[in-house]
Design a protein that fits this description.
The chain is built from seven helices and eleven strands. It is of the alpha/beta class and 238 residues long.
């Protein structure tokens, strides 16, 4: 149950102009458009007063509505090109709802290509979003110490950080990266500070197996293999 007067909005950005993977946001992933996984997880979490998709594409809009999301407006041309960032999309959506007289306490920006997302991840991360926390971002631990990086200069392999290269892995600090799934924030704080990291977000740790960054067809095929593997592990043995 949500606290009294708390209203949450799910925003799923889904631009239509993907070049490296044509129609990436609605490409079939094990039998259904990949955006459907994000919509269904948001709806199943029972956290949101509204689940909406921000898109500039009528086909994406129709598919999003088929799976239960709302598409109250078509994204502006300004926020539909390659240079538009996620924050720009979130600002546009939040300002639209404010103009309509609809005010939300928090929003969750959910990526449209996040087939590993689970309703439990949304529920558990939302529990971190309390009065003392204005944002939550899922993260994944690097599986190799980034301090021990190498560089290639003029085709020659060089050590990047000599002070850390010889240290044991356990003596180096843990480092994390964005899990590529979703982002929670208090709406008022986000609009005021114009971004997530100024809000001193809490980290919600996820297993590195559920990280996805789908930019190329090779990425897509790799994610399909991981998805199959994870789902085989879920099946009970006979």
């Amino acid at each position: 149950m949500l606290p009294d007067k708390t209203k949450n909005l799910a925003i799923i950005p889904a631009r239509g102009g993907s070049k490296r993977i044509p129609e990436k946001n609605i490409k079939l992933f094990f039998g259904k458009p990949i955006i459907a996984y994000s919509i269904e997880a948001a709806l199943a979490s029972d956290l949101f007063d509204e689940v909406m998709v921000s898109t500039d594409n009528l086909e994406i809009a129709a598919i999003a509505q088929k799976y239960g999301a709302k598409v109250p407006f078509i994204r502006s041309f300004r926020n539909s090109d390659d240079n538009a960032g996620l924050n720009d999309v979130f600002f546009e959506v939040l300002n639209y709802y404010q103009d309509q007289g609809m005010h939300f306490t928090n929003f969750c920006g959910i990526l449209s290509t996040a087939p590993f997302i689970e309703k439990e991840y949304l529920q558990e991360s939302f529990s971190l979003l309390n009065e003392m926390t204005h944002a939550v971002i899922p993260v994944v631990k690097y599986d190799f110490p980034i301090e021990r990086y190498l560089m290639i200069e003029d085709e020659i392999l060089k050590v990047g950080d000599r002070d850390n290269y010889g240290k044991r892995s356990q003596d180096l600090p843990e480092r994390f990266h964005d899990a590529g799934q979703f982002y929670w924030a208090n709406c008022e704080s986000f609009l005021l500070n114009k971004g997530f990291f100024k809000l001193m977000p809490k980290a919600y740790r996820l297993n590195r197996n559920v990280f996805q960054d789908i930019d190329t067809l090779d990425d897509w095929e790799r994610i399909e293999m991981i998805y199959q593997f994870l789902n085989m592990k879920k099946k009970p043995s006979l």
